[in-house]
Design brief:
- The structure is a single chain.
- With 136 residues, the protein is mainly alpha-helical.
- Helices cover 49% and strands 10% of the residues.
- It folds into two domains: 3-84, no CATH class; 91-132.
- The protein is built from seven helices and three strands; from the N terminus they run βββααααααα.
- The longest helix is centred in the last third of the chain and has 15 residues, at 118-132.
Length: 136
């Protein structure tokens, strides 16, 4: 179940309701709770305009419609856990992958691919790959 803490500095996603919240923060888990929350029009606009990929607003207009749209936009946000899984490979992992190819890789190929100098590549080969990781 997704639970959101609406604070002065934005919206935070939680897996379960927190034991306590700071002053000025509101915990909501549904559209109905968001409708029941005592949010000023100014705060609703600030929350809406802080969301990514939404058309910025200058006026609240229909309050209930804005709250419904805000809830839909918040529910569409990806989980932070899903974003952290797509970490790009480190430079070391990229070099190891180049070396594990069937044709391998030369010092010059690694240097140009990584943007390094030749002596940096040789240091990586002898120090990290051979001594620390035990790769030969």
């Amino acid at each position: 179940m997704r639970v959101y803490i609406i604070g002065n500095d934005g919206i935070i996603l939680c897996r379960e309701p927190p034991a306590a919240v700071n002053e000025g923060e509101i915990v909501v888990a549904s559209n109905e709770e968001l409708h029941a929350a005592q949010l000023s029009g100014k705060r609703l606009l600030a929350l809406w305009n802080a969301l990514p990929d939404v058309e910025k607003r200058k006026k609240v207009g229909d309050r209930d419609a804005l709250i419904d749209q805000l809830w839909s936009a918040v529910e569409a946000l990806p989980d932070p856990d899903q974003q952290s899984d797509t970490k790009p490979p480190s430079k070391q992992e990229a070099v190891v992958a180049m070396l594990q190819r069937s044709e391998g890789a030369t010092v010059d190929e690694v240097a140009s691919a990584m943007g390094w100098q030749r002596h940096t590549v040789r240091g990586l080969f002898s120090g990290t790959l051979k001594k620390k990781l035990g790769l030969t």
